[in-house]
Design a protein that fits this description.
single chain; mainly beta; 8-stranded antiparallel β-barrel
Amino acid sequence: MSIPTGTYDIDPVHSELGFTVRHTGIAKVRGRFNGVTGAVTVAEPFASSSVNVTIDAASVSTGNEQRDGHLTSPDFWDAASKPTWTFDSTSVEGEGEEFVINGDLTINGVTKPVALDVEFNGAGTGPDGAERVGFSATTEISRKDYDLTWNVALEGGGLLVGDNVKIAIEVAAVKQV
């Protein structure tokens, strides 16, 4: 199945940017960002394709308002002074249904390169007649790389919040007309 060329706007209602991080060394806390916008451009040749995403840092939702407030505070990413995060692709490797998008991820004012492992989920026409495409992507980052260093030492050893953050993305995007 080939990916239809064109520029697609991310549909925030049908897309999700989620994350998972260890808590107390034994549990996993999951969350998501509800404020995600951007565009996916599928080009010919495919290696010229690109992705640009903006994330509202205050739109985090972990299912716990107190935790969400702490995450958006200066202890973690200070959403009041650094309200947006971005991902801008720099290259695309491979083609077909599975490929890698390399890019610059900016979180908390710090930019680092990341690689997204991407799967093309398909293309079709929505009930509104608009052409749509779908993708899944994953990556893993170190939160310390982005100056997200707040933590608490546990009495029995270890730290309250793990360093590795797994990111899972589900994107539905609508072709621009």
